[in-house]
Amino acid sequence: MRADAGLTHSQFLPYLLNRVVGQINAPMQRSLRRRGMTMTHWRVLGFLVERDGLIISELADRTVTDQATLSRALDRLEGRGMIRRVSSPLDSRQVQIHLCDAGRDEYRELRSIAAEIEAWAFRDMPEEHQRTLRECLGMLSASMVARPFEPGEPEGRPAVPAPHRDDGAAVAREVA
């Protein structure tokens, strides 16, 4: 759909997405506040559960947080014994973030709350629609990463097909 299609603000997809995310996040943020935590803390713990030892730039990217804000969040988590920082054995300029037992335990408790909130939020949506929504959001995110928006280029930078990988899947690369 083109930007000039006459949509009202309440029909604008980014607004609708933001509104729903806010409605889903509100009860999680209340739960986090009661524990002295933020959404950034929760995300850090979650991504470290998925892959321990991430470097700060990887965590910043995954948590969608600028490095200064992330650094303060890491200070707080480290002070509470939930994470520890370790110099990378491959590159001493990089610091890896590792999950401690306290952080893993906190994540498990928070994950249980998050699962309840997700079940509440999607209670009236059939499982098939939930799977479709996850797939669509994944496609949308991948598309925006592959073709970032550039002012004056409504379609973003064109993607050019790259050579096939060994598994036969096409890989797109950006045109500089």
What's the helix-strand series? HHEHHEEHHEE
Shape: globular
For the record, give the distance between the C-alpha atoms at the N and C termini, rounded to a whole number: 26 Å
Mean pLDDT: 86
Number of strands: 5
Radius of gyration: 20 Å
Structural class determined from secondary elements: mainly alpha
Helix content: 40-55%
Task: From the 3D structure, determine the CATH topology.
Answer: Arc Repressor Mutant, subunit A
Give the tally of structural domains. Answer: 1
- Reading side by side through the largest sheet, how are the strands ordered? 1-3-2
User: Proportion of β residues?
Assistant: 5-15%
Uncertain segments are 160-176
CATH superfamily: Winged helix-like DNA-binding domain superfamily/Winged helix DNA-binding domain
User: What is the name of the CATH class?
Assistant: Mainly Alpha
Task: Give an account of the 3D structure.
The structure is a single chain. The protein has 176 residues and is mainly alpha-helical. It has a single domain, classed as Arc Repressor Mutant, subunit A (Orthogonal Bundle). It has 6 helices and 5 strands; from the N terminus they run H-H-E-H-H-E-E-H-H-E-E. The strands form 2 sheets. Strands 1-3-2 form a 3-stranded antiparallel beta sheet. The protein has a two-stranded antiparallel ribbon with strand order 4-5. Helix 2 (39-50) packs across helix 5. The protein starts with 12 loop residues before the first helix and ends with a strand.
